[in-house]
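Submission sheet (multi-component)
Chains listed below:
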Amino acid sequence: MKATLQKETNVPQSQTARVEYVTPEVDIFETTDGYVLQAEMPGVSKSGLNVTLEGTEITITGHRNAEAVNGEALWRERPTADYRRVFELDPAIDTTKIAAKMEQGVLTLTLPKSEKVKPRKITVSD
Amino acid sequence: MKLVRWNRPELTTWPTFGRLTDLRDEIDRLFEAPLAEWARSSQLLSGWTPALDLHEDKDNLVVTAELPGMKKEDIDISLHDGCLSLSGERKSEQKFENAEVYRTERFFGRFQRTVTLPVAVAADKVTAQYKDGVLTITLPKTEESKPKHIDVKVS
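Outcome: structure written.
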């Protein structure tokens, strides 16, 4: 049975103020070489992005760029909170080779599996 | 088979129901929310409707829309009869289609949104910028639409 890539954990409750976050939407794909995770965080540039790995948990936080718009808001739908999402990693992932790329508000995380878990052909000796 | 999105509470911008004293206020707000907000939070009704803000200052109208992961060539903006229309298509990346899909939450495909502008704008001076997945459209108001100061004379 395959180990799951991720198990969502909630934002930990703090005693004083509770910081509100928005959960970015993600797509997760798996190939034989590893996993690819794409998270949507519009309004976040590379400098506002933070990807932290702690043991088997990876936390993605995105701080929104400051809005340069002045004037009165006539219609608001966009959330103002920063983005945050936590994932628990499959132990097969080689954490030293995780790569991240940020393009037009989409974070692409490439999480390769370690060599020893990849399928390998074993030759039969005579 | 069409995949139906399950909306977890954090995906909407409704406040938490943890405080009972504010419960009535929150329910009132729920019923007062414009129908467009309901449609947006249940994407079953309307497909992909990207979030959009409309701001007004004394010289311009500014529309900001969240359109992550698009190419600017795939975004169409048009202005007609005092309505701004945004449409386009987000294509999914080919290289991932053969992989095993674990989870999909992102929307792909066409989107369309129309905003009725409250004041007249100068169509030839409209500019648009696409940065970090946010499309910002600046629509300068026509001279007649700008607020004017009227002096009161006392004779």
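Remark: Chain B has a mean pLDDT of 78.
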